[in-house]
Amino acid sequence: MSISHAPPPDISLKTRPEQRSSPALVTVVPTSARRRSVPRWLRRTSGPLLLLALWQLASTAGWLPTDTLAPPSTIAAAAADLIGDGTLPAAMAVSLQRVAIGLVIGGTAGTVLALLSGLSRLGEDLIDASVQMLRTVPWVGLIPLFIIWMGIGEAPKVALIALGTAFHLYLNVYAGIRGVDEQLIEAGGALGLGRWGLVRHVVLPGALPGFMTGLRYSLATAWLALVFGESINADAGIGFLMNQAREFFRTDVIVVCLVVYAFLGLTADLLVRLLERLLLQWRPTFTGQ
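That's the Sulfonate ABC transporter permease sequence above. Prediction below.
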C-alpha cells in the first residue's frame, strides 16, 4: 500500500511582511480650505470698495453730476465735519434712545402676548385673532392717528417703533412655542415635570430660536420705523439732520445720515447674532461650505 504525500504549500507567492511596501501618506486638504485661499474679509469688502471706486470715478469724470449725488470724497469730508463739531454723535444718541425705548416696549408687549397665546388655548382664542387682524394694517398709515392722539412730541415716534417691532416678536415667539416637538413634552412629563417645569425646561428653550429670529426682524423694522417717526416734526436726531439737509440740497449730508442708519442697523444685527451664538450653542446648524 502506497501512501501519497501532499506537496508542501507554495510560499513563494506570499509576500513577507518585511517585503510589503508601506502606503504613501497624502495630506488631505478640505475643499472649503482650498477655496478660502483669499481671506474672507477681503472677499466681502471687495464689492463695496469696487462700488465706491466706480462712484468716485463717475463723479470725477462728470458722468454723475455732483448736485444730484455727491462723490464719496465729499461725503467723507461732510461726515468728518459733522463728527468734529459733535452734531452727528448727538443726533445718533437721540435716535438710539428712541429705538431702545420703542424696542423695549414693543418687544415686551409682543413677547408677553405670544406667551399668553402660545401656552394657552384660551389665550390663543382671545389674543391671536386680534393680533393677526392688527398686523395686516400698515403701521406707517397710523402716523396721522398717532399725531392726533399723542401730539408731535416723542410719544408718536416711540409708539411707531414699538408697534413696528411688536408683531415680529409675537409671530416668531408664537411659532416657536407651537413648533416644540410633542415628543419632548411627553418625555418631560414622563420624567416628572409639571406644567411650569415643562414650560421652563422644554417649551421656552425650544422657542428661543424663534425669539432670536423675531428680535433680528424687530431691529430691522425699528430702524425703518425710526426714519418715518423722525419725519414727525423732529427737532433732534438723524432724521432731523436729513430734513435740514434736504432743505439746503445737501446730498452729502443726506448720504451720511443714510450710512449712519445702515451702520447702526448692521451693528445691532451683529450683536444679536453674537447673542444667538452664545445662547444657542446647544443647537448646531449648517454654516455653509
